[in-house]
């Protein structure tokens, strides 16, 4: 194995311990674990695919949820679907700073990736929904997204015989708010990304990472302190941190988590996004204000943006240019294979 920082036993042992801490709970074996939907978990992800007891993952439920996800019937003017802001070819993001809803209305935040949300502890940048079922209906009724009421959505769905038949087969009743949310949540739980070069490297394929990416991995685990927030199989602690992105001219442009909790320490705090497929999901941050991964690295190298509630883990790193390039190479090595719908 290549080791840019030496090949002594001490270096190997330290690197191994760092990887062990990072990978707490990580899975490095492929096998199907959800028999109902025959879901295969990609290499590198947790082998347990959670779903609530009241909404098990089934093939029929996922199929129905996928149909709803791609159907513009859920939007007021029938112009957009869930997939308009969460495009599969962009790892379920839309490449915009902030999303555009019906009638060209601009949303307030960047559309986060939906990959691996099955493992999430809360949803949205501010964590205001604790489950995917709760999250599923909000974009439908949001004025700047799909701009509908649930009553109108249900009338449309009940007016289509094929939907009536499918909901009856899956849930034993006509479409209602609960069954729509359950179907959409079931589909989103199948959107998975893994089997990236980093996963193959950690599974013993020593050539999966370039020398530069491996140096970046060492920085990621060590001096760059990225694992303070980005750790585990999904490269996210699912917690909320203030990096200063919403602080401009001594004013909060977005209160973030504070709007949900009312706790002063949550001013300007946002949920840590997954780094899975991060090279495909530009622009970055809750407001899409950083256009490239190079911009993100520079932002964190400077220690974020100073403000009264800046996260204690953030501080200037003073990385050399070569180290920044190495981190970028590692982040690109988190690009995996996205699968959905099965």
Please explain how this structure is put together.
- This protein has helices at residues 9-22, 59-69, 82-85, 132-141, 150-158, 161-171, 177-188, 197-202, 211-221, 258-261, 293-301, 321-332; strands at residues 32-34, 39-40, 192-194, 240-242, 247-248, 251-252, 269-271, 337-339.
- By secondary structure, it is mostly helical.
- The protein folds into 2 domains: 9-26 and 195-339, Cytochrome c-like domain (Cytochrome Bc1 Complex, Chain D, domain 2, Orthogonal Bundle), CATH 1.10.760.10; 52-188, Cytochrome Bc1 Complex, Chain D, domain 2 (Orthogonal Bundle), CATH 1.10.760.10.
- The strands form 4 sheets. The chain has a two-stranded antiparallel ribbon.
- It is globular.
- It starts with 8 loop residues before the first helix and ends with a strand.
Mean pLDDT: 92
CATH architecture of the largest domain: Orthogonal Bundle
Which regions contain 5 or more consecutive residues with pLDDT less than 50?
1-14, 28-35
Distance N to C terminus? 36 Å
Any key phrases for this structure?
two-stranded antiparallel sheet; Cytochrome Bc1 Complex, Chain D, domain 2; mainly alpha; two-stranded antiparallel ribbon; disordered N terminus
What is this structure, in a nutshell?
With 342 residues, the protein is mainly α.
Fold blueprint:
Layout: H1 9-22, E1 32-34, E2 39-40, H2 59-69, H3 82-85, H4 132-141, H5 150-158, H6 161-171, H7 177-188, E3 192-194, H8 197-202, H9 211-221, E4 240-242, E5 247-248, E6 251-252, H10 258-261, E7 269-271, H11 293-301, H12 321-332, E8 337-339
Antiparallel strand pairs: 1-2, 3-8, 4-7, 5-6
């Amino acid at each position: 194995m290549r080791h840019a920082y030496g090949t002594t036993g001490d270096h190997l042992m330290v690197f191994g311990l760092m990887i062990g801490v990072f990978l707490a709970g990580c899975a490095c074996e492929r096998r199907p674990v959800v028999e109902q939907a025959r879901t295969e978990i990609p290499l590198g992800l947790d082998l347990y695919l959670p779903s609530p007891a009241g909404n098990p993952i089934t093939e029929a439920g996922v199929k129905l949820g996928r149909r709803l996800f791609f159907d513009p019937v859920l939007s007021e003017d029938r112009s957009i679907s869930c997939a308009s802001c969460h495009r599969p070819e962009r790892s379920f993001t839309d490449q915009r700073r902030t999303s555009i809803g019906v009638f060209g209305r601009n949303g307030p935040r960047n559309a986060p990736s939906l990959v691996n949300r099955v493992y999430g502890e809360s949803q949205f940048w501010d964590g205001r929904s604790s489950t995917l079922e709760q999250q599923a209906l909000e974009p439908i009724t949001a004025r700047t997204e799909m701009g509908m009421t649930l009553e109108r959505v249900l009338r449309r769905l009940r007016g289509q015989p094929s939907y009536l038949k499918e909901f009856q087969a899956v849930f034993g009743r006509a479409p209602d708010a609960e069954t729509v949310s359950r179907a959409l949540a079931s589909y989103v739980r199948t959107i998975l990304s893994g089997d990236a070069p980093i996963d193959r490297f950690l599974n013993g394929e020593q050539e999966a990472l370039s020398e530069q990416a491996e140096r970046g991995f060492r920085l990621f685990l060590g001096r760059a302190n990225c694992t303070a927030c980005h750790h585990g199989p999904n490269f996210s602690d699912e917690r909320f941190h203030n990096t200063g992105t919403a602080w401009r001219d001594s004013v909060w442009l977005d209160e973030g988590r504070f709007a949900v909790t009312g706790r002063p320490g949550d001013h300007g705090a946002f949920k840590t996004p997954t780094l899975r497929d991060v090279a495909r999901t530009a622009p970055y941050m809750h407001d899409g204000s950083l256009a490239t991964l190079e911009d993100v690295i520079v932002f964190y190298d400077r220690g974020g943006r100073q403000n009264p509630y800046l996260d204690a883990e953030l501080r200037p790193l003073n990385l050399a240019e070569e180290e920044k390039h190495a981190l970028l190479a590692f982040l690109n090595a988190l690009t995996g294979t996205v699968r959905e719908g099965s």
